[in-house]
Amino acid sequence: MKLTTITNVSVDGVMQGLGLADEDRRGGFERGGWALPLVDEETMTRLGEVYGRADAFLFGRRTYEIFAASWGAMADPQDNPVAAPLHARPKYVVSKTLTDPGWAHTTVLAGDPAAAVRELKERMPGELQVHGSGQLVRRLAAEGLIDEMLLLTYPVIVGQGTRLFPADGPDGALELVDSRATPGGVTWQVYRPAGRPRYATEVPPRTS
């Protein structure tokens, strides 16, 4: 099974609180809702296509609860290109404390997340998508379990908040396989892991 991560980030790499002002105030974050004003029609159309191709979804607990309270609470999800696949297809949530998820077709993965995801990838066909879920994405990246990364970068500098990747973490090279921009300035980059980065090993001679 192909594992794809889909992450909305600002130009300075922030992924926290992109939707609503009070979506995620951890750490004193006060700049929530930075992405929604920049979402244009083409972005929503493409996102609908991305969600529509998923065979299953994987979440960390916090993102799962945000999605369940919004997309999961829609009265007529079948009429929405994002909500329809979220409702109909299997959902897996990594959590050691969630015991009774209210969203249909949800399975809680309470054990080691890396082992659980490896097992899913081995026994299921299709595409497993991870939306948001920064802590989980960082763990999956460190374990080499991500096959493709889709980054939606919004033309804004948030200036505070949780970044996609930590200031000190494992490195990795990426292969850019697709890149495009919407009329509203949201850029889409699709990357595949490409092993370790290459670092310069020689210092060029000084010219003066």
The description of the largest β-sheet is: 8 strands, mixed
Q: Give helix % range.
A: 10-25%
Kindly report the average pLDDT value.
92
End-to-end CA span: 55 Å
Class by SSE composition: alpha/beta
Apparent shape:
globular
Query: How many helix segments?
Result: 5
User: Stretches where pLDDT falls below 50 for ≥5 residues?
Assistant: none
Number of strands: 8
The strands making up the biggest β-sheet line up spatially as 4-3-2-5-1-6-8-7
The SSE string, one letter per element, is EHEHHEEHEHEEE
What proportion strand? 15-25%
Q: If you compute it from the alpha carbons, what radius of gyration comes out, rounded to the nearest whole angstrom?
A: 18 Å
Overview of the structural elements:
There is one protein chain. This protein has 208 residues and is α/β, with parallel strands linked by helices. Helices cover 24% and strands 24% of the residues. The chain has helices spanning 41-53, 61-70, 83-88, 113-123, 134-142; strands at residues 2-10, 56-60, 91-94, 106-109, 127-131, 148-154, 174-181, 187-193. 27% of the residues are buried. The model has no long low-confidence stretch (mean pLDDT 92).
